[in-house]
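Next comes one such specimen:
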Amino acid sequence: MSISKTKSGSYRVRKKYPKDIVSILKLSSASYDKIFSTRKEAKQAEVDFEIKVASVRENKEKIFNKSLGDLLFKDFFESEYWSDYKDGLTSSHPTAPTPATIRNTEDIFRLHLLPMFGKYSLDYLNEHKQFVVKQMNKKAKEYANFKSVRSYFIQVMDLAEEYDYIDYNRLTKPLRKIKSSKKNQLKKLKKEEEKYLCERELLLWFDAVEKDYVDGLLNIQEYTLFWTTFFLSDRKSESYALQWKHVDLNENRIYLSQALDRYANVKATKGNKKSVMMIPAPLKRILLDWKKYQKKELFQFGIKQKGDQFLFTYTNRKGEINQRLHTDYLNRRMQVIQNRHPELTNCTPHKLRHTSATLAKMKGMSLEKISEGLTHSEIATTKIYVNDNSVIELTPASFAYDEIMSTAAK
């Protein structure tokens, strides 16, 4: 048994590298000796040890006669780092990364780190700090999420140090000094841009949406999605995740209990809240029309509209029908509307949420009611914009809509 429990309650893994692996990697010692907090981590380390041995044997032609530091950044990423990362061994976080996080990280390496550093050896990168800093500084000026790029690069080099591929990581300190230029620039622009539409600007958006729908430039699903997201004052991911079983048109209620992540997987709502929203009369009419229309559309493809059918779906580039919406679906539709109407002020689904909260406050809705309508945990969160299962009788958007339309009719 290679795992033993220490007096302190941790778990020690002791193994020996086979002679051929010691020779290929030119290890100074055949011993593998590490301590882990839990037995689960120790068992995983055992598995990883065997995987590493198999990987080295499989790729021995690439690395034979090379010193460890001569290994390319790309090869080290593939043979060592990536499996350790997916198992949660490259950070101090208590749990392994989720599938969504793994995909995000894979994109950062594929789009940024591997193109920049993949063809360079670990030794070269570690010994040429100015080169690495120059490349990273350039990336910081181009890419808003630079901190993630930097963090993962440092993780790779730290692991290379831990596994004795390099003597120590010389890059951490100079890389920490690089400023997130692009992100700071975007923050500044965001502060300068209004966070919500004024009453006149919102009315122009209403007019544009209605006009495009009447003119056939906006289909019934896009029209319904816009008004659903507005009237519920919810997050777009919560509108995307609505299924017909969540919509009670007889009792005029919508149950917000889930959301979609950026890969269209169902997840819990923010803060794991489950809210019941009253459906305002204008939205009910729209939803009734959409339900009838969608039922006919689905029937043409031999699909029955059941309770678990999502309200909003699309056909992807592969021609696959009835797929859950991708994260930018509503943003892109709103951008197209804005492109057709130069009089419109820039707006996003999240800005709609800010707008409904702000205008509702201006029209006299209490901060407590706005907080409830936005399903915030604390009023302090609501103040930035301007639970339980209790029924939310009036969302900030419904309140603001009624007040605006009442004023406009006078």
User: Anything to note?
Assistant: The chain has 19 helices and eleven strands. Residues 220 and 290 are 7 Å apart (CA to CA).
